[in-house]
Design goal:
The complex is a heteropentamer of chains A (about 350), B (about 300), C (about 325), D (about 425) and E (about 270). Chain B is globular and about 45 Å long. A six-stranded mixed beta sheet of chain B has the order 6-7-8-3-9-10, with helices on both faces. Chain B has a four-stranded antiparallel beta sheet with strand order 2-1-4-5, with helices on one face. A two-stranded antiparallel ribbon of chain B has the order 11-12. Chain B is α/β, with parallel strands linked by helices and about 300 residues long. In chain B, α4 packs parallel to α7. Chain C has a two-stranded antiparallel sheet. In chain C, β1 and β2 form a beta hairpin. Chain C is mainly alpha-helical and about 325 residues long. Chain C contains 14 helices and two strands. With about 270 residues, chain E is of the alpha/beta class. Chain E has two domains: about 180 residues, Rossmann fold (3-Layer(aba) Sandwich), CATH 3.40.50; about 80 residues, no CATH class. In chain E, α3 packs parallel to α6 and α5 packs across α6. The chains are: A mainly alpha (about 350), B alpha/beta (about 300), C mainly alpha (about 325), D alpha/beta (about 425), E alpha/beta (about 270). At the B-E interface, α7, α8 and α11 of B face α1, α6, α7 and α8 of E. Bound molecules: adenosine-5'-triphosphate (2 copies) and magnesium ion (2 copies). One adenosine-5'-triphosphate sits at the interface of chains B and E.
């Protein structure tokens, strides 16, 4: 009833190739952006902004980054955490070297460092494929983590071995450091995430995105059609690491405030990978859905006993949350292996034929 | 398997298949609905009754397909690309589950028992095996190992398996030459032979053959169908084959169904189908004056719209 | 500097042969223990093409069940038998609930499912056994403890832990048995077929359900053995799960599908990282073990993209 | 009803659960006992809420955000990583952070960190005590010259923190410091580190470990036959479970401690009867009196005394985080007061001042006799003269790196 | 594209032997371990012709195509492409020089739609760099649309409008083959290598496919090398046929000559067609 494309004729290829060719989708996106930019800031409390929305957006961005590499280019990576760390440490160093430059600009620049590192660790992908490639990215993960601990210069030789984020402002509003309000940080994170997501979506629907998917779906055929495998893969590594690097920098600058090397450990890599797979490999929208599921669901689960006023220990809740998340991951994979993005498509398809079953 | 048990007129005997030259006087154009009466009869090995198949919960592919395969018969399933032949075969062999498809309506009876709920390996154990379209050899296994996996369900001892292996090698000498190569590296035709040979290794009562002739050299196509006929004659194996090479298929089959867009639109004795004008025109390519040249095909659309 | 890299380590090896032997032995033991974990991965990968991320947690789970049962008063050997039973139930459950509905799905989806399983088992295990580390019941199980020291020259001493020797023996026996099982039986061939193509395996009548249950059970047994051995070295705790990452380079080096590969890969990594850490690690401040294994694996892979004994990656059009 | 709300960031899951559980139980049980026995503090019950962090910084921050709005009085992160994240937030949100014997050593400088407390001692104090003790064994600081002292540590901020001090002392007293980092993902796999120890034959070993690292290290030490009486751990490597991993062979292993050993204290008895035996907690009765449990209790003692002091100073019954800060800064836990609360001799008397939030109090050494820890030394003073300048330099450095770091504006209540 | 053009209406092509040489294979041998896939084969392909390669299964036909477009590197022999002797080259270089192909086992990009698959054939012709792609609006979009037009022509030509937005993984085999042809056509190649384009098709579809091939050949002047097992198709479409058996060349000539060749009949045809 509500989801009918009938009557929406596209008269030009421009219209057909738009990001959201269907009117209802456009309206939906408009509503989401409205909620994100207006409704949430007006209504949400600090906890929701600082502990739900900001991490959610940061993770979404990281998931988009990994999706470029794994979902679109088919190169399995377990080094996301470390690449995010490179972004974080680079941004941190940049703020000490250029204390007067706008921190948002530095965060965006820091991505280039992780892009470069990502490309270096992407080099073996020419020869090594699939799960085997995962080990090279693991090498990156553990090696970089070790560097974060060992190279004192990276954290300005702080006794704590951690990086701590200085207070910086923009237009008179404090946006980083402990004094920044969750609202200010939320706006920064939201803007960067939406912007990068939009730019990446552009790349993905064009020639370059297509060449990544060609490599993913059948690298031999892609090569026989004139795609240079190494160049294309390295580009995917670089772009993916750039996005992850920015996400990593945002993670410490606008969310955690301080980070130890262990903040960028293999656990983080896996967290992002879950989001990508569960959201749907090869879908930008899916990255958001996956991030929401993996980050927000446990928070909700932990809150449930409190709401119901049941008295069980914090750790029992944690154990149950683990079990539920695990079970739900399996459940959703069984329901739809291609993730929430596909589930959403199927739902739309059903809406289209509604009220008939098919 | 004796001739007497095949009293039903539809289940033509192999001898009939050989009498290709004799013209058939009547053209049988049964509609699927009339056949339910014989589904339970003893001499049908497989009955598919009005099944509906949906992929991914939303894509309806088969819209009520019914067919029967008589014991010892060779039944051909013809139809254009995407008509649903493969889907029908997979519905029978229960491989749909692996593709997120399901049979939502109708029933499938193999040797008098409903089999929709069984697993594919149960079905193989009961003697019904499928040769999948597109080869699907085990790439990392050698040709010989591939063949031996076909005998996985057999319990009749190494010697019997060994002799069957020999049999397959006699059918396909090319396989003997390449027996130790990894199947993934063999040529397309070699893989096709391997897939067929693998099915033979299970000593089935019934084989579902999906496009056996695809990618095979012409003389091999003839050979494959000769093998089909031999197995059918000597061992009484029944066949349901989906085949694009209508010419050959109808020469060897006893009965044929034509499937379009998920529905059976025409069925009848092979001979009758061969003489049907539409079939001639659209599947056999024989116009009034013999074979048409591929060079002279016309450019406007000439698709048959079946009335069903 | 150059001297430190190229000369000094060898001088040391020569001057302290007892220590070098000890390093080799430690490398051997570490290799064997890595191989044990890797073995569990190999089993399941071979049989389904699934990279079983949950192997690490299965190790912990098996160990905890054994110790937990014993703590509750079950005699050690009975606890062992009961644990085997638990692993069988687990295998059946995983096959029924997780694997069966996901047949013929892409590898990464199955990988993800095993990660879901990992989460579930972590929560479940901690719920039942609590999060604190437990002591492995080494002696109760009749495993040797203590150590033997061999005098070596003047001041030299090579110390062999009995439990390490037991671990090596058990690992080798297990690898032998599994290798025979996989290569000599009809099931072995079927497993490799399944790993290649689920649907085709179904079509020739291989019962994925049965095979998967068997293999997950076998992996559970390997996990139990691993849990006992690692538990005897440190403690049985959820932190052990992290060790499972060490199995990855081993696995990749040996080739995902090869049982002997797991052992040889384990030994290469074990020797390699111990020697590197002890003779070269000091140059960069030590602790290089956390990534060195991956670098070894990476270098090997550049020359053999399918690992040492892995099945060749077939590329054909 | 009015309550004073105390969130407890704990971890009973994850790789550090082995240590975390005992701490969590101790912290929780003491406060609960106060509620049961005295109806809280100053007549106001304490609302206790545990939040599980799994020793994970992300979750730690989430717990913080989730609880700070409920009027939290103080945070005990029990993780250096989480502490570091909370330090800058404390002054903004006006909730003090109590990192008892961990976290950022420099936080002892109250002028720079008015909101952070690391009473009773810092890591640097601890490290200096170990060196002091070793010197005692060897016959004076001068005889340290030419000795080799090994330092095995968790390769993270926590383990690396004492290194500057140890290096400085090594230079000053002429001993050689050998470092053996244990990567966090290798905690249970330390054979290389201990082989190195075996090769280097250090005269003493110092350990800064946590969680699963401790028992593994002790086992490995036994394995290479390192003389256990020359092996000294920090107070976080002092758990019974840690030493028990080495069993009888580990006898002689020593660890620093600043909280009481055993359960012969009236307050602990109260906990046993009123809380544990009454089934109001999940504590295993056998664990009462163990090192880490008692550590947790001590942590809660400091919280409780902080609240009490705050109540006295402000005259309020229900206090805020700001009041709590004042209370903690005026904390003066005397011998008499300890006796009053049924914990005579449980800890060294401790006093916090506006300048010094740690107090550099003395600690003692306990030794594993194969079955339990026994106190083997008296209270040993840290080398305040070395440590204090270091602390001040580090605090200044922190403030500079985090410029603009807020100046202290909080008045000193003393 | 929909104009009715039949082969007869075009001027009779010049005999193949007079046409310009496009590609020459000289004494090429290729073996894998012990298996000799190709032994000392020489033949040529001339501009504008339809060249068929036939032979029994495992004769080395596919391997021959793989050698031509650089996927396999022959141990011996040379390949001359437009007068230049080619050294060892990577497949993407072959593609950029104008060699496109379809595959025996369909090698489409399974996760992409028909449209994207065919667009992917135009990758080499598109050039807007990463930063334009990021912005999309402007040059990148214009370029995309320009190529989309070309692709839509191909879609019309192959009559696959209805499946434009369908992921190709779900298409039936025959349509997949057609999409694959479309993808190769999108590359606007000089030489088009077709590996069993009609396997698995029924007569009607084969007729369609034949028409496409002939049209491509005559309209775009694309040279075609074709492997096919349907003798009817081969005899009707091709100008010259080379026959392989066990990696060796056993015949080369016009369809009529080849059909009459006894060696070919023995090795391949079985009976003379
Ligand atoms: N896994 C699947 N998911 C969704 N749709 C599918 C799937 N498999 C097949 N289909 C659809 O089902 C229809 C019938 O396909 P099927 O493969 O059965 O045809 P076919 O008659 O065997 O064709 P061909 O002769 O080309 O092999 C097609 O339209 C196809 O798009
Ligand atoms: N990469 C490879 N490794 C090993 N053997 C190979 C490889 N590629 C081809 N072969 C072998 O070379 C021979 C020729 O193979 P090819 O694929 O060229 O045959 P074909 O003529 O295309 O046959 P078909 O008509 O069956 O497709 C076959 O025997 C095949 O097994
Ligand atoms: Mg089909
Ligand atoms: Mg071929």
């Amino acid at each position: 009833m509500f989801y009918r494309e009938a009557g929406q004729f596209k008269t030009s290829y421009e219209a057909d190739q738009a990001l959201f060719p269907i009117r209802q989708d456009k309206i939906g996106l408009g509503i989401i952006l409205l909620v994100a930019f207006v409704v949430i800031p007006l209504t949400a409390n600090d906890f929701f902004l600082a502990s739900v929305m900001i991490p959610f957006l940061v993770f979404s961005l990281a998931a988009i980054g990994l999706n470029v590499l794994t979902g679109f280019c088919g190169q399995l990576s377990l080094g996301t955490g470390a690449f995010m760390g490179v972004g974080a440490y680079a941004a941190y160093k940049l703020t000490t070297i250029f204390p007067d430059v706008n921190v948002i600009f530095l965060v965006l620049v820091s991505g280039f460092f992780s892009a470069a590192i990502g490309a270096i660790f992407g080099l073996p992908s020419l020869r090594i494929k699939g799960l085997y490639l995962a080990v090279t990215t693991l090498a990156a993960q553990f090696f970089l983590e070790w560097c974060f601990i060992r190279i004192g210069w990276l954290y300005n030789y702080n006794a704590s071995g951690a990086i701590e984020i200085p207070t910086r402002e923009m237009f008179g509003v404090i946006i980083s450091g402990a004094e920044a309000t969750p609202l200010a940080r939320y706006f920064v994170v939201l803007t960067i995430t939406v912007l990068i997501a939009f730019l990446i979506a552009n790349v993905l629907r064009g020639r370059i995105g297509r060449s990544w998917m060609m490599i993913r779906d059948m690298d031999i055929a892609a090569e026989l059609m004139g795609i240079r495998p190494l160049q294309t893969k390295l580009m995917a590594f670089a772009v993916s690491s750039y996005v992850c690097g920015v996400a990593g920098a945002m993670m410490v600058f606008f969310w955690l405030n301080a980070a130890e090397p262990s903040s960028y450990s293999i656990t983080l890599s896996f967290q992002i990978l879950f989001m990508v797979i569960l959201g749907g490999l090869g879908s930008v929208g899916g990255a958001f859905m996956g991030a929401a599921f993996i980050w927000i669901l446990p928070i909700v689960l932990r809150a449930i006993p409190n709401m119901l006023d049941v008295d069980i220990g914090a750790e029992t809740v944690e154990h149950l949350a683990f079990m539920v998340v695990g079970a739900l991951i399996i459940f959703f994979l069984i329901v739809e292996p291609h993730g929430f993005a596909r589930l959403w498509q199927i739902a739309k398809q059903k809406l289209r034929v509604w009220p008939f079953p098919y | 398997m004796t001739g007497a048990s095949r009293s039903d007129p539809r289940s033509a005997s192999p001898e009939m298949a050989l009498e290709q030259a004799k013209p058939m006087s009547t053209l049988e154009l049964d509609r699927t609905g009339d056949k339910t009466s014989i589904t339970e009869a003893q001499d049908t090995i497989l009955t598919v009754n009005n099944i509906e198949v949906i992929y991914d919960h939303v894509i309806l592919v088969l819209k009520g397909v019914s067919l029967t395969v008589p014991r010892g018969g060779i039944v051909a399933l013809l139809g254009a690309n995407g008509a649903g032949k493969t889907t029908t075969l997979k519905a029978v062999s229960n491989l749909l589950g692996a593709e997120r498809g399901e049979v939502t309506k109708g029933k499938i009876v193999f040797e008098g028992e409903e089999v929709q709920a069984l697993s594919p390996n149960d079905l193989v154990r009961r003697g019904c095996i499928q040769v999948m379209e597109g080869r699907h050899c085990f790439g990392h296994l050698s040709i010989e190992e591939n063949l031996l996996t076909g005998a996985y369900t057999r319990k009749d001892g190494a010697a019997a398996i060994k002799s069957d292996l020999e049999m397959v090698y006699t059918y396909f000498p090319r396989l003997r030459e390449r027996r130790n190569s990894q199947a993934g590296y063999t040529s397309g035709g070699e893989q096709q032979m391997c897939a067929i040979g693998r099915a033979l290794m299970s000593r089935p009562k019934m084989i579902l053959l999906d496009e056996p002739s695809m990618g095979l050299a012409p003389q091999l196509v003839e050979e494959i169908f000769e093998i089909v006929k031999q197995l059918n004659d000597n061992e009484g194996v029944s066949f349901l084959l989906a085949e694009q090479n209508t010419n050959v298929a109808l020469r060897y089959a006893t009965y044929g169904y034509i499937l379009e867009a998920g529905r059976i639109v025409l069925d009848g004795d092979a001979k009758a189908l061969r003489d049907n004008e539409d079939v001639k025109e659209f599947y056999l390519g024989v116009g009034g004056e013999g074979r048409r040249s591929f060079r002279n095909v016309k450019h406007y659309k000439r698709r048959k719209r079946w009335l069903s | 500097m150059l001297y430190d890299i190229f000369v000094d380590p060898f001088v040391q090896m020569y001057q302290m042969p007892d220590f070098f032997l000890q390093v080799l032995w430690e490398g051997f033991v570490a290799g064997i223990l890595y191989a044990l974990i890797a073995l569990g991965f190999v089993l399941i990968f071979k049989a389904s093409g699934v990279f079983n991320f949950a192997q690490g947690i299965m190790v912990v789970f098996a160990g905890l069940t054994l110790v937990g049962l014993h703590e509750n008063g079950v005699p050690a050997y009975l606890a062992l038998i009961l644990t085997i039973g638990v692993m069988a139930v687990l295998a059946y459950g995983i096959e029924r609930i997780v694997m069966r509905p996901l047949v013929n799905q892409p590898d990464i989806i199955l990988l993800m499912a095993t990660i879901g399983l990992t989460y579930f088992l972590i929560g479940f295990g901690e719920l039942i056994f609590g999060g604190e580390p437990k002591r492995m019941i080494t002696e109760e199980l009749g495993l040797p403890t203590g150590s033997t020291a061999f005098e070596f020259g003047e001041r030299g001493l090579v110390i062999l832990q009995h439990i390490d020797i037991a671990a090596a023996v058990i690992a080798i026996l297990m690898v032998g048995a599994l290798a025979v099982f996989f290569n000599k039986t009809r099931i072995g061939r079927a497993l490799r077929a399944v790993a290649d193509d689920h649907q085709a395996a179904l079509s020739v009548g291989i019962s994925l359900n049965q095979i998967w249950a068997i293999v997950w059970f076998a992996a559970g047994l390997v996990a139990l053995a691993t849990g006992i051995m690692w538990g005897a070295r440190s403690d049985v705790s959820f932190a052990l799960e992290i060790i499972a990452f060490k199995a990855l380079p081993v696995l990749i080096l040996g080739g995902f599908t090869s049982i002997p590969g797991a052992i040889i890969g384990g030994l290469i990594i074990g020797f390699g990282e111990k020697i590197a850490e002890l003779y070269w690690g000091g140059l960069v401040g030590g602790g290089i073990e956390s990534w060195f294994a991956y670098i070894i694996a990476l270098i090997f892979l550049l020359f053999r993209p399918q690992g040492l004994f892995g099945e060749k990656i077939i590329e054909r059009v | 009803q009015d309550t004073n709300y105390v969130p407890l960031l704990t971890y009973r899951t994850g790789p550090f659960a082995g240590s975390g559980i005992h701490i969590a139980n101790g912290m929780n049980d003491y406060l609960q006992m106060l509620n049961e026995r005295d109806g809280g503090i100053g007549g106001v019950p304490i609302a206790i809420e545990e939040c599980e962090t799994s020793y994970n910084a992300q979750k730690g921050v989430e717990c913080y955000e989730a609880t700070k709005g409920k009027g939290a009085l103080v945070y005990n992160p029990y993780s250096t990583g989480i502490t570091l994240q909370l330090i800058p937030k404390a002054s903004v949100d006006k909730i003090p952070v109590l990192s008892m014997g961990y976290g950022l050593s420099a936080a002892a400088v109250g002028d720079v960190f008015p909101w952070v407390f690391n009473v009773p001692v810092t890591y640097w104090d601890g490290a200096s005590v170990v060196i002091n003790y070793i010197a005692d064994q060897e016959g004076g600081l001068d005889s340290l010259s030419g000795k080799k002292i090994g330092y095995i540590f968790l390769d993270a901020g926590y383990g690396r923190e004492p290194i500057p001090l140890l290096e400085q002392l090594a230079e000053k007293h002429g001993f050689e410091l050998l470092q053996y980092p244990v990567p966090a993902n290798q905690m249970q796999n330390q054979s290389s580190q201990w082989l190195n120890v075996r090769r280097d034959r250090p005269d003493y070993m110092i350990m800064w470990g946590w969680g699963a690292m401790n028992p593994t290290a002790i086992k490995e030490a036994v394995k290479i036959r390192y003389p256990m009486d020359k092996f000294i751990g920090v107070w976080w490597s002092a758990g019974e479970d840690d030493a028990a991993a080495g069993g009888q062979d580990a006898a002689g292993y020593k660890a620093l401690n600043f909280s009481g050993v055993g359960m012969d204290f009236p307050a602990l008895q109260d906990i046993k009867t009123l809380v544990v035996d009454a089934g109001k907690t999940q504590t295993d009765p056998a664990s009462i009196g163990t090192t880490l449990y008692n550590r947790g209790v001590l942590n809660s003692v400091i919280i409780a005394e902080g609240i009490r002091t705050a109540q006295e100073l402000t005259g309020k019954k229900v206090i805020t985080g700001e009041d709590m800060r004042v209370g903690l800064e005026a904390l003066n836990l005397t011998q008499e007061r300890l006796a009053e609360i049924g914990l005579a001799g449980f800890a060294h008397p401790m006093k916090v001042t506006c300048e010094d939030h740690a107090g550099s109090h003395p600690v003692f050494i306990q030794e594993w006799d194969g079955e339990r820890f026994v106190k083997v030394t008296d209270w040993i003073e840290p080398m305040t003269d070395v440590v204090r300048p270091l602390l001040e330099a580090a605090a200044a450095d922190y403030a500079e790196k985090n410029a603009p770091w807020p100046e202290r504006t909080e008045a000193c209540a003393q | 594209m929909n104009a009715i053009v039949t082969k007869e209406s075009l001027p009779e092509p010049r005999p193949a032997s007079e046409r310009e040489l496009l590609l020459r294979v000289d004494n090429v041998s290729l073996s894998f371990g012990g298996v000799k896939a190709i032994t000392d084969i020489s033949f040529d392909i001339r501009k504008g012709e339809v060249r068929a390669i036939i032979g029994p299964n495992g004769a080395g036909k596919t391997s021959m195509l793989n050698v031509i477009n650089g996927f396999y590197h022959p141990q011996e022999g040379t390949i001359t492409w437009r007068g230049e002797v080619r050294r060892k080259m990577r497949p993407y270089e072959a593609a950029s020089q104008g060699i496109a192909r379809t595959f025996q086992n369909v090698a489409l990009f399974k996760g992409m739609t028909t449209l994207d698959n065919i667009m992917s054939g135009r990758s080499l012709k598109m050039s807007r760099n990463f930063f334009w792609q990021l912005l999309w609006r402007g040059p990148a979009e214009r370029e995309e649309i320009e190529h989309r037009r070309k692709v839509e022509e191909i879609i019309d030509f192959l009559e696959i409008q209805a499946i434009r937005k369908t992921p190709v993984g779900r298409l039936p085999y025959g349509l997949q083959k057609r999409v694959e042809l479309g993808r190769a056509l999108a590359m606007e190649p000089e030489l088009l290598l077709l590996d069993e384009p009609m396997a698995g098709m029924n007569l009607e579809e084969k007729e369609d496919m034949s028409r496409f091939i002939l049209d491509v050949n005559s309209e775009f002047g694309t040279t075609i090398a074709l492997i096919e097992h349907d003798m009817g198709v081969v005899m009707d479409l091709s100008d010259r046929v080379v026959v392989l058996d066990y990696g060796k060349k056993i015949a080369d000539g016009t369809p009529e000559e080849v059909q009459a060749n006894q060696a070919v009949i023995d090795a391949y045809l079985g009976v003379s067609h």
